[in-house]
Specification:
Layout lengths: L2 H12 L8 E4 L5 H13 L5 E4 L2 H9 L13 E6 L3 E2 L5 E2 L6 H9 L1 E9 L13 E5 L4 H11 L3 E4 L1 E2 L2 E2 L7 E6 L6 H9 L4 E4 L1 E2 L5 E6 L2 E6 L1
Parallel strand pairs: 1-2, 1-3, 3-6, 6-14
Antiparallel strand pairs: 4-5, 5-13, 7-11, 7-12, 8-11, 9-10, 14-15
Helix pairs in contact: 1-2
């Protein structure tokens, strides 16, 4: 079983939590891209749900699979969100943002009664920051002073994310700084320090937001609950 098989396994297991009549937050990323077709199949078979996408990419995929969509303006309270993660620690704290949608993902997670995270086993870590940089969304104006302030106040190196030699632009028309830590000892303190820097929109630290983590492993499904 390879990583893609493990992602598919986790996504299909998480789909079992979706019930008729739910407002469902639809995350962003490679594992969620296995979830959307499964939900589309269930909708075709009669499942009645409304999806709230967290990115243009997810919106397009959901429309392709005929999943009815809405907005947080029309549905400010979400029953269940299913999303991926780049790292998951033993306390179910997360690093997210590899797919570039961290701000919308955090708003949707905060608005959800239940947040389910789907990952393959390689995303489980003993401490955040060990294997994946922390994405930080920043406004384009003054991104360089914001980068310097992050590096001066925290033990990390921040790099502007690029795409085809140009700054990567989020759906919110902002930039992303990928912050390399050796490890993050106190995620809440790191989040507070970064959010206190002018120009920062949001960090990819998701602390206390995940309720259930569904992990696809070589041995099958493992589920962790807060």
């Amino acid at each position: 079983m390879d990583i893609n098989d493990m992602k598919r396994l986790a996504a299909e297991k998480a789909a079992e939590y979706v019930e008729d009549g739910m407002v469902v937050g639809l995350g962003t990323g490679s594992t969620v891209e296995y979830l959307i077709p499964k939900l589309g199949k269930l909708v075709k078979e009669g499942l009645d749900i409304v999806g709230i996408p967290t990115s243009h990419r997810t919106k397009n995929l959901a429309e392709e699979h005929r999943i009815p969509l809405s907005t947080l303006t029309e549905h400010p309270k979400i029953d269940l969100t299913i999303d991926g993660a780049d790292e998951v620690d033993p306390s179910l704290n997360l690093i997210k943002g590899g797919g570039g949608a961290l701000t919308k993902e955090k708003i949707v997670a905060f608005s959800s009664k239940t947040e389910i995270i789907i990952v393959d086993e390689t995303k489980l870590v003993q401490q955040l920051g060990i294997s994946f940089p922390l994405p930080v969304e920043v406004i384009p104006f003054g991104w360089c002073p914001t980068k310097l302030a992050i590096e001066e106040n925290l033990p990390c190196t921040a790099e502007l994310r690029k795409e085809n030699d140009n700054p990567y632009t989020t759906d919110n028309m902002n930039y992303l700084l990928d912050c390399e830590f050796t490890k993050i000892d106190n995620p809440r303190e790191v989040e507070m320090k970064i959010n206190g820097i002018p120009g920062v929109v949001e960090t990819g630290l998701f602390i206390g937001l995940a309720d259930i983590v569904v992990v696809g492993t070589r041995e099958g499904i493992k589920t962790f609950e807060r």
